[in-house]
């Protein structure tokens, strides 16, 4: 009962961290207009802020994989949350555009640490057939944070409190909340991965039932001493006794082995390829709030429309996860891919209709709300119905954080370019005039220019993303079966006395017990033969 309560608390805190992560990401785009006026920044410069954060986040993402392999995951998530909280406070206190850009870069490091660790935590907490729905719930609660962060910042941006601009207060509130949740995650959350003592006990009992194996008490006690609960394992003490250079070298070697294993998987290469183009539209959407304000919807109107869109994406992600699980059961190896293609293709007509066809007039609020709602419901499936569950299926459990980390690194590096591209297209191709923006009444010419830039960076990548998924039909099922086979029959070293192999997880404890038992049985057989031979000679 106590363990169940602890896991419940853990899941609540993990979801709170996901909520704050999305809220933090949406803060700056929600106040682009005010930040631009405060620092006299153009759309391309505002896009550069998102580019810097996304690029640093992408480059730093592998750090999450390395940390999760060497340290307790809740601590990794908690420290990353504290990290982005402090950097968010730095944005609130920025007095120049350069200071703001530096703070956003530091913010990217915190997000880079947290997101892959959260994804692998969810993957390890659920069985294969329910991971899509689990990722859907994670996306749903994250979207709640996105809605809250966007609406809070957008509404507060139009006011000042004690002479302090509202957008700065919004960033300070986010910083304080993130820091508190980060500390709670670090302190209270349990990792679903079993500690070595529990892993040994579970493995031993399972082996007992399935293989009719019985370890002698001496061997069990010896191994129990090796991993005695409540005390440090001798192997860890040995590691602590080594110098720091060897520890760092070991971390690098372990990480390099995991990286090579991940990059060899064909399905990973394909999902990353589609993600590189598929992430561009979502990064470009950071301009939606600014675009709606330029049309003339105002702060509250733009905030409510973005809330509707984000809510549609949240429900769509949950539905996409569920339908992906269902489709995969109905069409093994193909169901998830078909759902992802349907979702990505739907982004083309919705983008064109929203950005090019709808009259850009605040009188059409209902039509914009309906379009944004249905667009959110349909274009948001890919991550939950396909990408995240596929990643969990095609690599062993120990490499999951690493595969999510490198996915973010590779996709994010290219997706980061979307925001400045939108700004450059709007200014240099479609006639956006940065100094002609009217604060409250809207600017129809600038809104039209920005919408054309957005459509270019959304519709084309959605189509390319749909096409890239096609290659998974040839690789996904094969890679999934190979990962499952590796999990059931790992290639471990067979040496019983090789503590180095045990230290590097090349030799599981249960195999050590089994090998020792087999050797002991052979010795007993030899002893019986000697006794028999001796008895024959005696008589």
TrEMBL record:
Classification via Pfam families: MFS_1
Bilayer-spanning residue ranges: 76-95, 101-122, 134-157, 169-190, 270-292, 304-325, 337-358, 364-388, 409-430, 450-472
The record's region (Disordered) falls at 514-539
Gene Ontology cellular-component terms listed:
membrane
Task: Give the membrane topology, semicolon-separated if more than one.
Answer: Multi-pass membrane protein
- Identify the residues that the record assigns to the Major facilitator superfamily (MFS) profile domain, covering every copy: 10-480
Superkingdom of origin: Eukaryota
InterPro entries linked to this entry: MFS, MFS_dom, MFS_spinster-like, MFS_trans_sf
Q: Look up the signal peptide feature and give its range.
A: 1-23
Q: Which residues form a coiled coil?
A: none
Quote the subcellular location field of this record.
Membrane
Classify the main location: membrane
Which keywords fit this entry according to its UniProt record?
A: Membrane, Signal, Transmembrane, Transmembrane helix, Transport
Belongs to which family?
Belongs to the major facilitator superfamily. Spinster (TC 2.A.1.49) family.
Q: What is this protein called?
A: Major facilitator superfamily (MFS) profile domain-containing protein
Its source organism is Riccia sorocarpa
